[in-house]
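Reviewer 2 asked us to include a model.

Predict the structure of this chain.
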Amino acid sequence: MKTMEMVAPPEAATQKRTQHRAMLPVLGMTCASCASSVESLLITQRGVEKAAVNFASQTVTLTYAPDKVSLLHMQQVLQAAGFDLLIDTENATQQQEAAQQKHYRQLKRKTVWAAVLTLPVVVVGMFYMDMPYANWIMLVLSAPVIWLGRHFYSSAIRQARQARANMDTLVALSTGIAFLYSLFNTLFPHYLHSKGLHPHVYYESATVIIAFILLGKLLEERAKSSTSSAIRKLMGLQPKTVRLLENGTERTVPIATIKVGDLLVLRPGERVPVDGTVISGSSYVDESMISGEPVPVAKGKGSKVYAGTVNQKGRFSFQADKVGGETVLAQIIKMVQEAQGSKAPVQKLVDKIAGIFVPVVISIALLSFGAWLLLGEESSLTHALLAMVSVLVIACPCALGLATPTAIMVGVGKGAEHNILIKDAESLELGYRVNAVVLDKTGTITAGKPEVSNIGWFGEEHDRALHQSVLLAMEASSEHPLAEAIVAKLQDTSPPAALSHFESITGRGVVATYQGRVYLAGNRKLLAEHQVPVDRHLEDMANDWQEKAQTVIYFANHNGVLAVLSLADQVKPSSKLAIEALQKKDIELFMLTGDNVQTARAVAQEVGISHYRAELLPAGKAAFIQELQRRGKFVAMVGDGINDTHALAQADVSIAMGKGTDIAMDVAKITLMTSDLMMIPKTLALSHKTVRTIRQNLTWAFLYNVVGIPIAAGVLYPFTGFLLDPMLAGAAMALSSVSVVSNSLRLKSHRI
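Predicted model (C-alpha cells):
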C-alpha cells in the first residue's frame, strides 16, 4: 500500500492540487427543476468536476480546475439561462441575503396585489358569470395578475431556448393556455356558438393559479429563511467592532481591519472578536458556545481565547492569532453552511427524478388533451382544456425538490444548537443505521488527563500541613507529566515550602531537602534505593490501586512513608450513562486503545463495555473497524487524537470529540463540541428523526403526484362526473410545498 501511494502519477497529484472547491450562492432558482438545470449547465462546462446544487439553501458546491474554467465564465453561462452566480466570495453571503430580502419584498407585493385582483374575478366567475360584461370585467382584472406573474413566462421562454423545462414551464403553459383561450372566447364568442358550444372562460382559473403559486412561493421563502436561523445565530456571535491597542492608546475599529499580531482589549461582558492569546490581565470566559460546558473558564497570561465566547467580569488584553475565516467560530459557521448545502444520497436520486419530471408531465398533459378530444363527447374541447391545464398545474415538482434539503437544513441547524456539528448531509442520513459504535479510550471515554484518585496520609497529624507543603513544592518543581495533577490537588491546601535542594531522577522520581531533612517522591524503586521501609498494609493498598490501572506515587522521608497517592485518567461522568443509553438501543459497543491491557480492562469494566482491544497501533484500529464492516456491522467511530484519524476515515460514520486534535476533527464528518459522551446517542437520535422526516416528506410528495396527476387528467370523470378545476389544482400544488416545508420545521421542536 505504501509503495502504491509513493509512486502515484505526478500528473494525478498535479490535478489534485489544482482542483478548487467553492460553495457559492445562486440567484433565480424557483423550483427543484431550476436547481437541476443549474446543476446540469455547470457540470457540462469544461474543467468542472462536480456541481451539487441545493435548492433549499440556494447554493451550489463546485469542484473545478481554475486553469480550465473561471468562475466568471460559469456566472455568464447561468446568466444566459436566467440565473446568476455570486462569485464575490468576500461578500457573497451578504449579497445573497440582500437579494433574497429584496426578492421576498417584491414577492410579497405581487402576492398581495394578485390576491386583491383575483378575489373579484373568482366572485364574478363563480356566481355572476351571466351578468352584463362579466367576461370583460374579468379580463380587465385578470390581465394585471398575468402581468404580476410575468416572470413565469420569461423563465419558461429562457428554458425553452436551452431545450429545457422547469416548474415555470408548467405554470406558464397552464395559465397562458387558460388566459388565451378565455381571451379568444371573450373577443370572438360567436366562433364557438357557431359550432354549438358555449364559449366558457377560465380567467378565475388562470388568476387563482398564479395567486396560489405566488402565495406558496412566499410561504416557502419564509420557511427556508427559518431553516437558516442557526447560521444567522452563529454569525451574530462575532462583534462588528473591536478595541485595538496601539502605542498605549485604545481605539474602536471594524473587525475586518484586524490582522494577526494586533493587540486587542476586552472589557467585561463583551464577546471575544477573534482567536488569540492573553497577554495581560485575567478573567473568566464563558466558552459554552465551543465546549458546551456551562462553567466559565479562568483566563490568564498565555491562555487561549476564542471568537464568539463571552468575557465575564475581568478585563484583559490579548494578541490576535487567527482572524477572519481562520477563527474557530468561522470554521464552525463554514462547517454548518457546507452541511446545510450538501446533499444526502437520497437527494441525488430525487434530483434525477425532478430533471425528467417536467417533460413527462407535459407529455401526460398533451396525452390528456388528445384523449379528451378523441374520446369526449359534448364539451370535449372544454374538458380537454381543463384536464391539460389541471395536470400542468398540479404536477409542480417543488414538494419533491424541497422534501430532502429542508429536512437536512433543519436537522443540521438543530444539531448546531446542541453542539453537534455535522459536516455533510450523508453523515446525518446514515447515522440512524449505526448498529456498532467503536470508542477510543483516552480523551473519549476518559478525560484525557491524569487526576489524583486517592491519597492516604500517614505519620503524625500535626505534621500533615508541613508534609503537604513539602510535597507541593517538590511536584511544582518537577517536570514529570503527573506532577501537574498532584499540584492541582494540593495547591489549595497550603503554600509550597522553600526547598534548599531539588533533584529529579529519571525513571524513579524526585529528591529534595527541606530544613536539613531529605524527602522522596516517586515509585517503589526510589524508596528501595534509599532503603525506606514499606509495610505490608501499604503494599497491599498500592497493589489494589495498580490492579485498577492507577499509577502509585510514594512520598517519604528516611523514617518511612508519609503518604501514598494514586493517579489515573478519570472516566468522564457521562461515559457510563452514554454507553448504557447506546446499549439500550441494541447498539454493540467496542473500546479500542493503544494503552496496556490492564488499563483497558479496568476502564472497560468501569463503564460496562464487554468488548475491548488494547495496545493497538492506528492501523490496527482501522483494521478492526474493517473486520466489523465485513461482519455486516454499520460502524460509527468516536475518537479525538491523531492516532484515531485512520479509524475515523474507515468508519461509516465518524465522530470527533471537540476537545481533540484539529486533524481528527478535519477527518471526522461529525464533531461534538463538548466532552459529554451523551451527545453520541443524541446524534444518532437526531439522524433517526431527520431521516424519518425525509421519508415522510418524500412519501407525501410522491403520493401527491401519483394521486393528483390522474385525477387532474380526468380518470374519475367517467365514474363520478368529477373533473378537477385548475384553480383547485393550483391550491393543492401550493399546499403540497408548504406542507413539506412545515413538516421539516417540526424537527425544531423535537427533543433529541
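The longest helix spans residues 92-127. Residues 433 and 634 are 7 Å apart (CA to CA). We have added this to the supplementary material.
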